[in-house]
């Protein structure tokens, strides 16, 4: 069995002075889900070298068992990852364009698309090379939409699956792509025997695109697997000493007796961190009684900083936090505590002490934070959840639902969350934790694999 994804389970940082390589776990839902397969499963995980550290690791032959990192030319990777995957396909699936001025599909786009094809071909060839006769291969995400079709041509004997960790765009939005590119993406995906999505909504959106643009799914099956949180791991990890230390530090920053509205995200355009802060400011404005009694703890970890729009967004998050603090802060109260350095133990600490978790993405494949918080919460936590997060399909009943664009309604939802009676909040948290852990990562992966193995192949 083989897995293919752009980001692998580890990435390496190179110390330019000492030449030392240090390994770090990759971030995001994909790595969280797939890490459950572990090195003992006999699987091979094919991923791309992402930076200089990774490339150096490949050259030195450093690596983990069961992982093959592809040393794809850095410029080709940059065009494919930054240019196409993250600036076009990600934007299409998350509805992120400011359409009066973008997207513009020009000669530069076409040049980058050739790199995207080359990068997909490198994966298809590596998989074709590594896979045993009749093996199952599960390709991950929008970075690798062309791989199933390419691999099918190279190795008709394989069972090929593809899983999307993102939403899928509605037909009208998807059709912004040039016609030939839209068709190539769909036909590439339909090279798979089976396509997996995180929710029924994204699966239906894909099917609608296939119906509208390429005459339907053909023999490809579509299934839904809602990745859940890993309760055992999270509960054990969140009770280690380093998390306790960070809780004490955070409590110091928040102040005794104050409530905490927590959010933890990559600094990602779709996560809607700015409107979250605007809603918090609206709360302080509309209900002055909350001033000095609540703190917005926002963790916004760096992501995709090669893209100017992400750097600008990161700066805007920081600017707005500063603005709110100077507008409302008092000597003993910092209204927004913003941390931008990725620290998993500190995230768990914030999960444990949160009174309210704010998860308000514009659009999100699933959102694992919404699932993780209720699992580790010490005393119950109210979840304010965007109806546009995939997780809403499973958690909506026990959350306070918000329209992510409506900051006034979000401010109201925050007030409602902050005033929920403790027993009610504990009851909701219990049900949220049960729903959130219904399909833990290992089972999520095995379900996909079994479903793929039971799918009649489209090969000869
Ligand atoms: O889990 C969803 C996802 O988009 C993955 O596809 C991706 O690997 C992850 O989030 C993080 O993004 P990136 O790999 O670009 O840092």
Automatic annotation (TrEMBL):
Task: List the GO terms this entry assigns under cellular component, sorted alphabetically.
Answer: cytosol
Q: Name one Pfam family in it.
A: Glyco_transf_20
Out of the domains of life, which is the source? Bacteria
Q: Which SUPFAM superfamilies match?
A: UDP-Glycosyltransferase/glycogen phosphorylase
Protein's organism: Streptomyces sp. R21
Family annotation (Gene3D superfamilies): Glycogen Phosphorylase B
Alphabetically, which GO biological process terms does the record hold?
trehalose biosynthetic process
This protein is called Trehalose-6-phosphate synthase
One GO MF term attached to the UniProt entry: alpha,alpha-trehalose-phosphate synthase (UDP-forming) activity
Q: Kindly give the InterPro entries that the UniProt entry links to this protein.
A: Glyco_trans_20
Q: Which family does it belong to?
A: Belongs to the glycosyltransferase 20 family.
